[in-house]
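Thanks for the sequence, V.! I ran 2-oxoglutarate and Fe(II)-dependent oxygenase superfamily protein right away. Repeating your input here for the record:
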Amino acid sequence: MGEVDEAFVQALEHRPKLSFTEAEGIPLIDLSVLANPNGNIDKLVSEIGNACKNWGFFQVINHGVALETRQKVENASRKFFAQTSEEKRKVSRDEKRALGYYDTEHTKNVRDWKEVFDFSLQDPTLAPASPAPDDKEITEWHNQWPDFPPEIREACEEYAKELEKLAYKLMELIALSLGLPENRFNSFFEDQTTFLRLNHYPPCPSPDLALGVGRHKDSGALTVLAQDDVGGLEVKRKSDGEWVLVKPTPDAFIINVGDIIQVWSNDAYESVEHRVMVNSEKERFSVPFFFNPAHYTMVKPLDELTNEKNPPKYRPYNWGKFITTRKLSNFKKLDVENIQIYHFKLQELSNKLEGALSINS
Ligand SMILES: O=C(O)CCC(=O)C(=O)O
Ligand SMILES: [Fe+2]
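Predicted structure:
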């Protein structure tokens, strides 16, 4: 099949299997008890803790986000992506503008079969001007709203606010599940760098060779994802390393632990690899909400979760510098692996550190 450009072709070992065996899927958690002021949340906290520990991924239902709010974004997203490239490129992301439309993202140096539109929850969002460790200059990320469809801005802003409430609730439940006070994580998000992404995966002539998104872990704290009814998201099951399809569940959100929770929890909860398969017939849409802390956050294992027997497994890293290093890497092909949390891991892999730091220079 010569129809897919070489840039999209995955190495043999990373190509998707197009037939699946029926496998145990990620946990489904009912959040309805949160709507009841006298509800006992102990059972819920333990379900969330088990899901974070054993899977790093789960779905939630009865989450309090109105279906209409979600549908408005999905409809606006369909209308936006149905336009010509020329129209979409009027709001392009580039080295200077961190947010907007983009269709050449690479994951692990292979191009993804997708196009995206990024916008941040807080407009503007403050972030470092460059990845250089000594550069203290701060810049503002501004949203770039397209003219069409006219309702896209309001739909996205309303959705982002609703999702933020859900993300805080989930972080509170995760804090409780780690034996921490409910509000332990809240202050990290005061000047948050949270952003949302409209993903469009067009039909692909060779779904056996390319991926919508190559295998990766999410680098932020927590991801709350809405997927449509097409399916394609696969999660690497912790118990046996098999890729498991996350079957679409109507009106559910898919939640996953990101790298920052992994570090905060000192590996009690792990960020899990996932990827997106594409489909030769159907296009697919999804909307992740990436809940990310303030740029000045020094990410490190929480003092309460470490002690002499369980010493910190990571040295602190600056979240703003991490994310700007990642963003910049989208615009130049790296000859080294992109920055990853294991580069900050103590003891193990310390020789990898040199390679990671050279990205910054
Ligand atoms: O589209 C999806 O289902 C997941 C996308 C994803 O993993 C990401 O954008 O980080
Ligand atoms: Fe992801």
